[in-house]
Amino acid sequence: MIKLVKHVVIFCTVMCGTFTIVTSPAVAQTSGEEKIDALQKELDIEKAALRLATQRGTFGVSIGAAVGAGLVLVGAGFGIGRIGGSAVESIARQPESAAKVQTAMIISAALIEGATFFGLIVCLLTIIL
User: Fold this and answer.
1) Could you tell me which of 85, 86, 112, 123 has the fewest CB atoms within 10 Å of its CB?
2) HSE toward the beta carbon, residue 7, CA cutoff 13 A
3) Helices and strands: H and E segment counts in the chain
4) Alpha-carbon distances of 39 from 2, 10, 24, 52, 54, rounded to whole Å
5) Can you give the residue range of the structural domain that contains 105?
6) pLDDT(9) > 60
7) 17-54, pLDDT tens digit by residue?
8) Is 88 within 8 Å of 81 (Cβ atoms)?
9) Is residue 79 in a domain?
10) Is position 84 within any domain?
11) What is the number of domains present in the chain?
12) What is this structure's pTM?
């Protein structure tokens, strides 16, 4: 009985997939003029966005802010990773000082995370404003 159910499910899946593949081009066909109109609208939107960015004179600033936000996040991840690795190594060497090391690790990670959020917000505000 279970094999029959499996075969029915596989058959239905294959048939639905085949039906979708076969009928989708027929359903989705548009005339050449509609395709041209859609491409023209897309091109107009891209031109308008580029014109707005260059008129404001912030195109380069936006790219710089985006790169800065990425560097802030990568640096924070690297720093917190080093803190965690060093804390684990320290606890492995001296298990009796685990509580002090863990507290210092959490405080350091929180400070790095706070600085990261500040840098990220500055970069995002540069893009938005």
Assistant:
1) 85
2) 4
3) 4, 0
4) 51, 39, 21, 20, 22
5) 44-128
6) no
7) 555 554 444 445 555 666 666 667 777 776 766 666 66
8) no
9) yes
10) yes
11) 1
12) 0.52
Residue 13 in tokens: 């899946």
Task: State the pLDDT at residue 104.
Answer: 93
Among 86, 70, 65, smallest CA distance to 129 is for 65
Structure-token match 């023209």, residue found: 40
Residue 92's domain is classified under what CATH number? 1.20.20.10
Kindly state whether residue 60 falls inside one of the protein's structural domains.
yes
**CA terminus-to-terminus distance, the chain:** 65
Q: Above 90 in pLDDT, residue 98? A: yes
Q: Is residue 112 part of a domain?
A: yes
Among residues 89, 81, 83, which one has the least CA distance to residue 104?
83
Contact 120, 65 (CB under 8 A): no
